[in-house]
Amino acid sequence: MRDRNKLTGLEERFDLVVDSNDIILERAGILLDEADGVNRTQQPVMPAGFQPPKIVVSSWNRKGSGSGTHSETFRLLHAKNVTRPQLKFKEKVDNSNTPFIPKIFIKPNATKPLPSYFTNKQMRKERPEDLDVPAALADFIHQQRTQEHVDDMFAHPYQYELEHLTTPEILLSKPEPQMYKPIAETKCTFIDTLEDLVAMNEKLCKLSEFAVDLEHHSYRSFLGLTSLMQISTRDEDFIIDTLELRGEMYILNEAFTDPAIVKVFHGADSDIEWLQRDFGLYVVNLFDTHQASRALNLARHSLDHLLKHFCNVESDKRYQLADWRIRPLTDEMVQYARTDTHYLLYIYDCVRAQLLDHHHGQPGLLQSVWNKSKDISLKKYVKPIFTEESYLEVQRKQKKSFNTQQLTAFRLLFAWRDKLARQEDESTGYVLPTHMMNKISEELPKEPQGIIACCNPVPPLVRQQVNELHLLVQQAREMPLLKAEIAAQKTKGLTPVRKPEVTLFGPHDMSRAPGSDHRHFSHDDLPIKQGMLFSDEHKMDVDMQKISCLIAPAKITLFKELEAKNDQDSISSVNMKARRIIESFENPFRMYLPSADVHINKNAKFDPSSKIFEISKRWKLLSIEQQQKEIDAKKKAKEEAKDQAKKATEERNKAKQSYQESLQNVSTVRQQAAESTKGVGQKRQRVASEVGESTPKPSKKLMKTAEKPQKTEPPPQESFTPFDYSQSDLNVFAGAKSKDNTQFDPNRQAHDFRKKRNPKGQKPNFGAGNQSMSYLPGKSERGFRHNWPKR
Ligand code: AMP
Ligand code: MN
Ligand code: ZN
């Protein structure tokens, strides 16, 4: 503080004192936790009325001096008095290592009906035999038998509608910018009940545009959590608690996919994915002001800049990285969140006007922004998939060249981290930050304490599993080094060169048998023969050269195989085997989940007959084929547009009909709201009477009949027929070479696309699901169960 110049006000100095105290107390807290063994139950210690203070503010983009940067970042990561919102989720998060399948099960504003795969999903979810596998795996099994759903499973549910969306004339003509209301005079509603959500949805459905933004949390969750949604209309702001309403958010598809309503976002790329991932929400008719800013070639494209530029509003982006799971939200957080959407519709007007002015009134530039926005809304959420090669991508970014042992350690730690993060539903950065993983791999500590020493602060899960990590590091240390690596280490003056197990390694060398603690022997302890071999420094060098010359070629052929085998055996081959047998009883699909022993065989990925080879190749190819497929799909869509014009009308009617049918069975939004607020009879009446034109909505009569099952009926179990696994081709999961096309193949989409899109093949097939469609939102408790091998 002494160094601060005199201009620094008393207030700022005072802030510094407060800040420093915060930091000291926080550190003390962390150290106490560490001493305590940490990770007690992660239960919150939040007293009633506790107002989470500013400690959650990150240093990101902080205005003013660069003071305290470190401590603030630190503080962000340690906002630990927060309940894990996941605990309240009705449907558990699916972190399994399987591709994402859309969550949608009802499709408002459809011109092409939702494939039966999705409409029947709720029923399938309740099948008891699926309870022990993650939802996505259960779906694989199902499609194994039917084969007909693969295309649908991975397609964008609104692709057809988006591709046939045209920008109406009015949206291409110059608007008169409509000034925003001052924040102080604008009503702001916090929404955390279904009833309020429904009421808001009703309002939104009547508008021609509204602005949307999301806040997200990614540190204490594997996939991330959408924590807040902000919506602004021309007259009011809404803040929606999406952690509370996660299971109900889908109802907003009615407004979000209505092509007659423009949804304005700023930089929607992530938002579009988060909406799909967490709520099954899609956006039809998006306008992205970030794309507009780019097209206008503004100096910067951030929202701050647009706010300054068009509204002369100074925004404070420092809450962007706040822990948005905190409840109740502080006033500052609410203020911040509102600002993100409050001005957006005005900015939308301004940029449209400018885009036209820039182009002398020609709509080309503006049209390009609409098109880019549409492309963004066509984006599909892709779940992070663990493959044999994932670790290489991360490792390459580290700008460190690793030798065989270090790279092995990195690979093993990476697999451990991924597995644990999925299992515990934490981010990989929380489990073990990459820089620490890097440090451990680099140092290859001999003792568990050495691993702890590589981490500061020590991540709770590292401390908890330090012995497991130690085994992994040991395993890596047993990898033979390449000749060049030995030489490199020698020039660096490092000692491992002398390790006898490296130079004397051979297929019949029993000194490397599991359990041997050979490498820990000091020179004095070495067996006599080896002692003689290395008795003299100079002589050793000569011997070393000779020996490594002899070793190098051998490794390529014989030794390499053994080395890989050795990997697996090194812990204890008997234990491993036993474990694998036991696990195979638990879950036949275990091999699709990341587990340490799957990744260990380094050669497998180069062996075309192995399962891992197939899997990794498949995922590599996926992105390429995906692109090709999308190109094909676009071409195809154009070609068929004419032929289908007639059929489309037919389809639309069918879609409407099926939507209506499905509404009979699905308890509707309005019903749910009505249910949840019994006694507010008037409200129910009002809501039910608002039957729209474009989208068929349930009549009162339909609602009444549908109400009963929702309230009382259990899932339709009487009519349930157990799934017959004997019909499935389980060989697929057993690692056989089967090139058979019953195997799950995310790329199949591409091959079958043409056939599938042919109008004959499109059978709306809604009748089938009718009986079992009564969806009980509160009861879909089935969900993710951990199938990881138990330690
Ligand atoms: P925004 O659209 O600016 O409100 O950002 C939405 C969410 O994206 C925030 O809640 C953050 O979780 C995340 N986010 C935004 N900017 C960053 C950043 N620079 N680094 C990491 N996460 C960010
Ligand atoms: Mn945003
Ligand atoms: Zn935001």
From TrEMBL:
GO BP terms, alphabetized: DNA repair; exonucleolytic trimming to generate mature 3'-end of 5.8S rRNA from tricistronic rRNA transcript (SSU-rRNA, 5.8S rRNA, LSU-rRNA); histone mRNA catabolic process; nuclear polyadenylation-dependent antisense transcript catabolic process; nuclear polyadenylation-dependent CUT catabolic process; nuclear polyadenylation-dependent rRNA catabolic process; nuclear polyadenylation-dependent snoRNA catabolic process; nuclear polyadenylation-dependent snRNA catabolic process
Subcellular location per the Swiss-Prot or TrEMBL entry: Cytoplasm; Nucleus, Nucleolus; Nucleus, Nucleoplasm
Compositional bias of kind Basic and acidic residues: 632-654, 737-752
Alphabetically ordered keywords of this record: Cytoplasm, DNA damage, DNA repair, Exonuclease, Exosome, Hydrolase, Isopeptide bond, Magnesium, Metal-binding, Nuclease, Nucleus, Phosphoprotein, RNA-binding, rRNA processing, Ubl conjugation
Pfam families: DNA_pol_A_exo1, HRDC, PMC2NT
CDD domains, sorted: Rrp6p_like_exo
Compositionally biased tracts (Polar residues): 656-675
Domain HRDC: 403-483
Similarity section: Belongs to the exosome component 10/RRP6 family.
Protein name stated in the entry: Exosome complex component 10
